Amino acid sequence: MIPHRNNMDWILNDLAHSVPYVRHIIVLSSDGLRIAQYGADPDTADRLAAACAGLQSLASAVGQQFPHGNGSMRLVVIEVDGGYFYLMSAGDRAYLAVLADEGVDAGLVSHQMRDLVARIGEHLSAPPRNPEAVA
């Protein structure tokens, strides 16, 4: 069961405050629904969550081209003018996304994201919307 979003936002505070230049943090389900957020208004968080779902799907399709493993997406990092975007698997059908301004310590962001997922990953799992549709 997905905890109510207001109950989840607080878990993102540690990541946000421990890494300078973090702008937005979003936890989302694999179908692009926002579960929790930090630093973004709801409309921005919803747009980012939807974009993340598409990126996760694309990364998984690329991962299927490797002969070993199951092709599941673990981490995507995109560097753009002005900053970085990180998308990490954070539980069963759940993902953690971070947008950070230029100047961020890229290694520290990844490290802190992994720590957060390790601590609370089981709470970030997102059940399927229609359990009968999943066999």
UniProtKB/TrEMBL annotation:
Domain Roadblock/LAMTOR2: 9-100
Gene3D superfamilies listed in its UniProt record: Dynein light chain 2a, cytoplasmic (3.30.450.30)
A Pfam family: Robl_LC7
PANTHER family associated with the record: SERINE PROTEASE INHIBITOR RV3364C
Designated name of the protein: Dynein regulation protein LC7
Organism, as annotated: Streptomyces rubellomurinus (strain ATCC 31215)
Source lineage: Bacteria, Bacillati, Actinomycetota, Actinomycetes, Kitasatosporales
